[in-house]
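Q: Here's a chain of 228 amino acids. Please give me its 3D structure as tokens.
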Amino acid sequence: MERIKIKESVRIIRKKGICYLLGSNGKVKKYKPWLGDLFAFLYERIMQKSVFPKKFNASIDKHYNILKKEFENIHNTRIIEFATGSGDAVKYLHNDNVYGGIDISAGLLRIAKKRFDNFLFLDSELFVADVCDTPFEDNFFDIAFCNLSLNFFEDFDGFISEIYRILQPDGMFFCSVPVPERKTTKAIIHGNLYTSEDLKERFERQGFRFEPLPYDNGALFYFKSRRI
């Protein structure tokens, strides 16, 4: 398989298997992670013990079963994940795929790097970068996906535009995200919550075919969008 292609204008450095983007001043670009890198090791525990049961009113086991079903037949494919986190994609992706992962937390990506290595993902690269300003060439990936993070992206329309840019024609984007109409608890879900109809309108406006998926899991909404 072809390795991940970076735009010629982008400069990166690699440290312990993680790719860092350089700014025009030659220094590594800095971002502010949700938890902060010092607390990256708590991420999965917070998701399992707090976010899923208390905020989403959802089953984390059912969530992973859904992902396994959606990705079970994906092999030898160029895949990009937005908001890689601690690398839980190893639970449902096959290791023969070419995998690129983006997150603003270097701490989480260091955890993810160990997991991808342990699961023998031989063609994987992890990038500390903003989801709206990725380093990849146009029309490169076959599949993009983002789980449980879309509501945190500040420039949502810019993110959709970036997905369109780096996906090949007919490329597919998969997403799981909390939506307000499925929220049944009083717990606060941080970020910007978009209704399923708003998601549909925004993706279709930028050249995608939108397909809601028939899964029921608390506040979570699952969908696909294919680039036209």
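Q: Can you summarize the key feature?
A: The chain has a mean pLDDT of 94.
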